[in-house]
Amino acid sequence: MRTVRLTKETRNNLLEDLLKRSPNSYGEYEGRVAEIVEAVKEKGDAALFEYTQRFDGARIDASNVMVTEAEIAEAYEKTDPALVEVIRKALVNIRAYHEKQRQYSWFDSRPDGTMLGQKVTALAAAGVYVPGGKAVYPSSVLMNILPAKVAGVDKIIMVTPPGRDGKVNPSTLVAAHEAGADEVYKAGGAQAVAAMAFGTESIPKVDKIVGPGNIYVALAKKAVYGHVSIDSIAGPSEILVLADETANPRFVAADLLSQAEHDEMASAILITTSEELAAKVSMEVDGFLRELSRREIIEKSLDNYGYILLAESLEEAIETANEIASEHLEIVTKNPFEVMTKIRNAGAIFIGEYSSEPLGDYFAGPNHVLPTNGTAKFFSPLGVDDFVKKSSIIYYSKEALDPIHKDIIQFATSEQLTAHANSIRVRFEGEDKDE
To answer: Residue 206 has what DSSP assignment?
Structure first.
């Protein structure tokens, strides 16, 4: 891996380089995506099935677009029972973590005749996109469906592209069934996103679309935002390891490569105060590359967006980590909990040498759908909050409104909104002495 000494210039160059990975930088695809979205909006199933034939090579129609109970049973037969058990164990942890995020309606009554509050209501329908083809991620199925389930969403539908045989990957189906998806549809790409956003004859419209996908999926979610809500426009995966001389170089190298194997646009960065650790990590990376199956992808990822950054101090390393705002941040230092308190921007923070990033991907419980491309500065991981909405509750008796009604009239009049002022005034007609 390339090793670079941290300066203001190298940090700025790195940040500029990483931002090129954002889906917002792929303008040449937007026209194609807009065409697909508009076609599905206008033609419904006809466009959806045509694109499924063209892009996935599968003959799907209204009679077979929805996964049947028989297909789910077949998926269980084809999935290793040991994997089914692991899915169930992970599901317990993920559900338990998200149950702690639940919020409840609250009301505050006062003796003066006022009652204020907040009503928390789950969304009526949510749509989950799950990649297909070579990308088979039952873990993502759990991470996207379970928060919606815990939130109390009435209907959760899932879409995923079929293979040429018109079938869905068995482990994906098993995970969807275990997590509690109400319906699963054989549709992928921008056309599936559009189908959930606008509804077709076969696929119902939802209120929010979540889930990862390729550039077409990301841009389609961006295109339909406003018609429905979305979780985020996800970019390529990324990991940042913040380490000092106490870190195990073999562990650090393994963790960096765990993200670099996702795709050629993935980013893997080590920031360290130790030149010795930097050299050892680079050597360990070279050793692992001779063994790992996705070597070609990893090498391209590291060539494009892999860095070892040498910092003069731990404070400089922390400042840079906050500026990068990585999706995954591992802290492997002498006092990792102290460092954690100084981290302002990160999607998920892994503390200590045995809290490896894949632990969060699969099993610990926190959601692995995380903000990327620096958006951890203002976005949060997917959670129960993403599947609820909140309504303000306001109640005033006449006795409570009386002492403040003139203040409201004055405020409204100052903004020249006389109808607003009148709405309050009419309730005290004949009572105010200055009338």
So the answer is: -
